[in-house]
Specification:
- This protein is an alpha+beta fold.
- It has 4 domains: 212 residues, Thrombin, subunit H (Beta Barrel); 91 residues, 2-Layer Sandwich (GMP Synthetase, Chain A, domain 3), CATH 3.30.300.50; 67 residues, GMP Synthetase, Chain A, domain 3 (2-Layer Sandwich); 57 residues, Carbohydrate-binding module superfamily 5/12 (Seminal Fluid Protein  PDC-109 (Domain B), Ribbon), CATH 2.10.10.
- It is built from 7 helices and 29 strands.
- β22 and β23 form a beta hairpin.
- The radius of gyration is 21 Å and the shape is globular.
- It starts with a strand and ends with a strand.
Length: 455
Amino acid sequence: MLGRHTAAGRRVALTALGTLVLTGAASAATAAPPPAPASTAAQTLGADRPPAAVLRAMERDLKLKPGQAAERLVNEAEAGARAGRLRNALGTHFAGAWVRGATSAELTVATTHAADVSAIEAQGAKAAVVKRPLTELQSVKNKLDAAARKVKTRDTPVWYADVPANRVVVQATKRSAATAFIEAAGLEDEGVGIRVSAARPRLLADVVGGDAYYIESSARCSVGFSVTKGDQEGFASAGHCGERGDSTAGHNMAEQGTFQGSTFPLKDMSWIAVTSDWTATADVKGAGGQRTQVTGSVQALVGASICRSGSTTGWHCGTISQHDTSVSYAEGTVDGVTETTVCAEPGDSGGPYLSGTQAQGVTSGGSGNCTSGGTTFYQPINPILSDFDLVLKTAPTEPGTPAPEDNAVDTWTAGRVYEAGATVTHAGVRYQCLQSHQAQRGWSPVATPALWQRL
């Protein structure tokens, strides 16, 4: 991981940067899910009106031609909604989804059941028939996670479910280390892949997302996303940046706040409550200091474009390589992070990642740099919001159906984090979640078919 950046002349800090129903009894080809309403996903997620600074950075870092960045964001928003509907419809056959191409025009959805192909293609996606469902890949990775708590993983710093390849992969500095780790997890016969790489991720340590903040007057990290907890304002960042009770100062070195919660290792998340002198905003510092406003936290697909802001290297873009990755830093193992092709350097830790205007997570660590290129990992934002009971600060949205007064567990409620596949009741109707996100007040199920499917 990429460790906290130490202030000049101060102490050294961390150095790590049927029908298509869930029964699956009959052929999935017999009843495809209903087609997506035109453009609703792009409009809901704000992908049809991205800031110019975001488009310029995407064109620079993803080597896109003029116009391709805007087209890509719309395609990725629509692909996420289509993949969510197919995930719910395929049930236990679902084996993952990803986008490809300069404009993310190709959506692929994987299934373990050949009869699902026509239903997938009916949604405008490419079908891939594979051996293992996503649940099986997750089970194999969970065994590696458990083994990492018992054995040393210095030489096997990264492991993840490679959805497009339909296998779990261990990245190691040498093949023998990967083999030993796989054997320790009891997975010798599970076809776990091995990738040999000299890269060792490190922590990127060091209320506008991407601004610097200082911990106990000694180390620097980057602000992630503004949040609220009741009437208290603050921001989310990385857990390795500080411990509960640590004090912080802002980019101007003025007294700022205190760590209220911090988890590291296992997860890499924290939140800082700020004093009344600071106001939480929905802004993230973009290219050239221009601000981008966050409008939600809908999780993007593998292959989707993503940009990062940090107090050391500023604004850089890339793509999502895989979700649910485990990384073994020198300071401890972190599970459930997302790997990207975006570069970062020490001091960028805790800074925000966005796909379009949707919050994705905060910088944990990585390898390489922004001169020669690198790999980074971020802690997804939705688990931070859920674990610490926080509400993401977002730009005002168009008025929608207000949150219901009934606060029953299964009733849709603004502010709750919903995972793909979750079911809720709204206005007496049952809905199933298509894409993981924190519910915004204007995002009721009836108003957002890009996020919810009526059952």
